[in-house]
Amino acid sequence: MFRKFVQQNPDGYPLTEAGSTRREFLMRGACLAGAAALGGAYLPQAMAAGPLTLKATHGTGLCNCPFFLVKERNLAQGVSLDFVTTPSNADIAALFGAGVVDVSVVPYTNFMTLYDAGAPIKIIAGSGVQGCVIVAQPGITSAAQLRGKTIGTFQADTLEMLPYDYLKKAGMSFADVTVRYFGTSPELAQAFIAGNVDAMCHIEPYATQALKARPGSVQLSNGVDVYGANYSDCVLAVRSKLLHENRDAVKALIKAMMVAQRQEELDRASAVKDTVGKYFKTSYDATLDAAAKQPAMIDQRSNQNFILQRAQNLKELRYIKRLPGPDVFDWGPLNDVIKENSDLYGQLKLKSA
To answer: Which GO cellular component term is one of those annotated (predicted)?
Structure first.
């Protein structure tokens, strides 16, 4: 079936706004991940032939900031990143699952849907923590007051997991609300600012932007009240083929992400200046305000169990059929980088050890 799909679609799966139903989302991810499992993954030239260019996708939240700094500041020795532009959040993960790109900073939830569909991919490090925020229109101050209301979010995203768990903690479920799915981060933020949804779960810096732009709006949860501090949002993941054939490139990328984390911790204003506008479609002031709310944390080995526990939500929502195990992670390259760069690792504020 997947081979026939690839033959009939030589230019790839059409990139459109995220579907409004779970069925459409799953069809997109399954077709792309399944096609890639047949072996169409793109892999660039070997490092021995010169600098290695890795095709990559990324999200739109501040959890991607270290990834952006790696590219903008050329932090990875012998490796450069070529970002592939995608029209919607769903396509970010789909292209990675299809093997169109080699590496991605992606919500761990999207990763698990791709893995469940058969994509040969591994989580090798973290990127950002926290920063998932539920905001509500003026007058809504509790989970109970969301009953019968509309919540905007993204499918199979960490931004869908937080309201799911937030409502569950209050003895409620998605059956008590109307969940409306959006295609892009600016689209969701503008829908909330315009009053077209009663609440939304969004990422930083868009959550801060919305709170500033909508007088009287309320932050119901920033995730810490539900999950605790430093919960995972996005992870750094690679195609298994890259991991096996260019381990040095993977290690160079992880080290560069750690350098970016350190630079961000030392000077958030500079990090925002180098990324706002091009990557974050929000104002400089809103982005700087939000930057500390979703910090970089590349070593997220301590979040392994948290990530695996959220898989139960994905199964309940019928995004995946089977629960993943520890084999979705490969911390080997990260362990090597930590051992080989103890001084750098020791300077990082946020880390597992």
So the answer is: periplasmic space
Q: Give the Cα separation of 134 and 108 in Å (integer).
A: 19
Tell me how far apart the alpha carbons of residues 59 and 348 are, in angstroms, rounded to a whole number.
23
Residues 33-50: pLDDT tens digits? 444 433 344 344 444 456
Q: Which helix (H) or strand (E) holds 172?
A: none
Q: Do 265 and 304 fall into the same domain?
A: yes
User: How many structural domains is the chain composed of?
Assistant: 2
pLDDT (tens digit, 9 = 90+) per residue, 146-159? 999 999 999 999 99
In the beta sheet, which residues pair with residue 136?
Answer: 199, 218
Determine contact, residues 121/97, Cβ cutoff 8 Å: yes
- CA 242 to chain CA mean position, Å: 20
**DSSP bridge partners of 152:** 180, 200
What does the pLDDT average to over 257-272? 98
CB atoms within 10 A of CB 51: 14
Of 284, 300, 10, give the one whose Cα is nearest residue 130.
300
- Picking from 125, 90, 112, 126, the residue whose alpha carbon sits closest to that of residue 15 is 90
Q: For residue 297, what are the contacts with CB-CB under 8 A and spacing of at least 6?
A: 126, 127, 128, 129, 230, 261, 350, 351
43: how many CB neighbours lie within 10 A of its CB?
Answer: 15
Residues 215 and 137 in one domain: yes
